[in-house]
Write a structure and sequence with these properties.
By secondary structure, this protein is of the alpha+beta class. The protein is built from four helices and five strands. Strand 3 (61-73) and strand 4 (78-88) form a beta hairpin.
Length: 151
């Protein structure tokens, strides 16, 4: 496989990532809405005070993405980065694309002077967990995640 090029997605490339975002949402049981996604994810196009939308290209085709959110850690009293989304097209999984996206996310976190990079996955997503467990220096958190619908 050709080299993976991971870089921020530009405004001109937003339409290329929307099908991947829809695939990610479908994987997690959400119903994609193209226009809602365009408006929401455009907030993370470089430069943004809210986060960063990264894309992974192979042979000039967008095959994966990660969304980074800038947030804060009260326990570390420092900036942090949440990799809220990581998705790679099914046909190219297992070829280092997810790892390349994680590395670029870590580079972005370090470049911002963030205390850490964190991410979550579903308890039944064994494929993603195998990747995450193999990332040097990464470890499972001791924290439990809770959520409640607000709307």
């Amino acid at each position: 496989m050709a080299e993976v090029d991971v870089r921020p997605i530009s405004a001109e490339e937003i339409d290329q990532v929307l099908p991947l975002i829809a695939g990610y949402q479908t994987f997690y049981g959400a119903k994609p809405d193209t226009e809602r996604n365009r408006a929401f994810f455009s907030r993370f196009l470089y430069p943004s005070e809210e986060g960063l939308l990264l894309g992974a290209w192979v042979d000039r085709s967008l095959v994966g993405f990660a969304t980074l959110y800038w947030f804060f850690s009260s326990t570390k009293a420092a900036d942090s980065v949440l990799m809220n989304d990581l998705f790679v097209q099914e046909g190219v999984r297992g070829k280092g694309i997810g790892r390349a996206l994680i590395q670029r996310a870590l580079d972005e976190a370090r470049g911002r002077g963030a205390a850490h990079l964190e991410w979550f996955t579903a308890p039944d997503n064994a494929t993603a967990q195998r990747l995450y467990d193999s990332v040097p220096g990464a470890g499972r958190s001791t924290w439990f995640a809770y959520e409640i619908e607000a709307g």
